[in-house]
Amino acid sequence: MLDRILDHTFRTNPKWGKRDRHFVADTVFEVTRWRRALAFVAQDDSIESLCAAQWNRAGLEIPEWWSWQGCRVPEMTAREELLGSEPRAILESMPDWLDARCAKELGGAWDAELVALNRRAPVFLRVNRLRLTPADAIRWLEENGVTAAPAEGAPDALVLAEGKMLPKPLAAEGLVEIQDAGSQAVVPLLEVEPGMKVIDACAGSGGKTLHLAALMQDRGEILAMDVSTAKLSELRRRATRAVTRIIRTETWRADSLKRYAGWADRILIDAPCSGLGTLRRQPDLKWRLNDVAIEKTRRLQRKMLDHYTEMLRPGGKLVYATCSVLTSENEAQIASFAERDGRWQVEESLRISPAATGWDGFYAARLAGV
């Protein structure tokens, strides 16, 4: 949501230069990320005071014309020292209810995960293996003024230097896609092979769909489905620039399960979730979430698991994935499904820890019929 707001702001202020846009974007993201801690430091939660506290924290000189109601600079600097003795929810800037829920589900691991989720996220790229190798991609990027390095533990991933972005003209080439390394770990779990029929049931704008096409060497058929026609339109645009021809898109309909019953060799359920594994990129998410929304999403996840298996042929397999760190959306959801339907068992699962990897948080499990 912050990205869309900033994009609209920049389009309505075309005279702003690159430095201006960077300064505004950085301030917006960091004030959103640290809103509660900054309010403690400034002793005021107005946007003017939060900005002043953030600029002071970053070592920037606050403009003389900037007016705010909170503490003056010397007192804010002193209160930064006091922040370390405050409760975790204030120190790490989380709503009390969400901090308590995550601590209950993750136990002692939550401390390290929260610290990691409050770090700025680097830009990861996935190399389009249909068109070039990672080594070729590094050389191509270097020729175009972008330095990238292999991301350890993710064979198709490159990482840019801190604070660097992929220029839009290069992104439009389709040789690389912006995709977190944690997200890139999900699709290989599906064990696809060239020639298979695969359903990406919650395809969105297609990051994982394009990864599937590359792993299938552009041979077979991928049916990318979603409730959003706008996202599927973006997927088709990305598929064209990636030069893949095996992706077909279709909006979910009331009869989709019936129409594709027994059709697929593999199904990817990249399920709607709380998104808590992506807080580095979406710091506003923690202020928009509530328990009611999380429980509603969990009911949808359960419904998908109970019914989407109907689209698999005998012997087919599915991967259930989320970008959440909550066990209630991940391991507990899969354990509950296995109890309800004894025909399915977990073959392999993975949990991507932001603290351990520096990637976004993900969970995925591959299930097969018994």
Description:
The chain has 18 helices and 11 strands. The strands form 2 sheets. It has a 7-stranded mixed sheet, sandwiched between helices. It has 3 domains: 93 residues, no CATH class; 55 residues, Alpha-Beta Plaits (2-Layer Sandwich); 189 residues, Rossmann fold (3-Layer(aba) Sandwich), CATH 3.40.50.150. The two termini are 42 Å apart. The mean pLDDT is 96. By secondary structure, it is of the alpha/beta class. 43% of the residues lie in helices and 17% in strands. The radius of gyration is 22 Å and the shape is globular. Helix 2 crosses helix 4 and helix 3 packs across helix 4.
Descriptive tags:
four-stranded antiparallel beta sheet, alpha/beta, 43% helix, 370 residues, seven-stranded mixed beta sheet, Alpha-Beta Plaits, Rossmann fold
Q: What's the arrangement of strands in the largest beta sheet?
A: 7-6-5-8-9-11-10
Q: Hey, roughly how much beta strand do the residues contain? A: 15-25%
User: What's the shape?
Assistant: globular
Which segments are poorly predicted (pLDDT under 50) over 5 or more consecutive residues? Answer: none
Strand elements, count: 11
What is the CATH architecture term of the largest domain?
3-Layer(aba) Sandwich
Tell me the distance between the termini.
Answer: 42 Å
* Helix/strand order, N-terminal first: HHHHHHHHEHEEHEHEHEHEHEHHEHEHE
Distinct helical segment count: 18
Report the CATH topology name of the largest domain.
Answer: Rossmann fold
Structural class: alpha/beta
Given this structure, which CATH class of the largest domain is correct?
A: Alpha Beta
Mean pLDDT: 96
How many discrete structural domains? 3
